[in-house]
């Protein structure tokens, strides 16, 4: 009988039980979609990553698929960090660049070994930015989140940004207001069907730490995630959103910042975001993070 090897990894942190937990199935070859969905539901993390061995394609090292407790999603930042961190631990990898096949394409992931630990840098999918919502949809989104137009940060349009798994970007003025949010999850779920996007990333520049540009919270009840602790597929697209909307200054066609998330639910973590810019538009988005192992086990 094949042994299914599972890790639980906390991403975007070096402290256990903080950051964003993800399950990782190291050897997913042979598992059916039903098997993977059942495992993801049992582990009950926001996402579980399933690593499949390389195919005959010499350009691919691994294939990775991602499941929430309820559905498969095309990509996941923190679960990619977790998956490659777990694989590095399991195989005692040295620093290297691996190419992973996902539902949004083949992505390079850098594994950096430092002091017997690892940092993982993921190149995300192509950045896209949808037109800003009109006042009617914006008002519905704000109402579902418990916000008013007066709470919005000036010059921050409410719109969908994506590097493979889209999020609605909502910039607000106050970190205190951010931490007080109690969204109407049913209303957000209904809106998700209407706008074709299941994640709502509320962020603010209201920071008292020079190393942290933004603080954020991310809600995605339509895919079974009331609140995600630290979201790579929100902070990454946020970088592209800030550049394309000319909300930040940068030099030499390169913008980098740190985003913090998860404080309100006591799972704080930090995502380092790097954006390469071409003619004023985001050309490539990378996210970098630490991780820490919680447990390793075998599925009986």
From TrEMBL:
Keywords: Isomerase
Keyword Isomerase tagged: yes
A Pfam family: PhzC-PhzF
Signal peptide: none
Superkingdom field: Bacteria
InterPro entries per UniProt: Phenazine_PhzF-like
Coiled coil: none
UniProt record similarity statement: Belongs to the PhzF family.
Protein name, entry field: Phenazine biosynthesis protein PhzF family
The organism of origin for this protein: Chryseobacterium vrystaatense
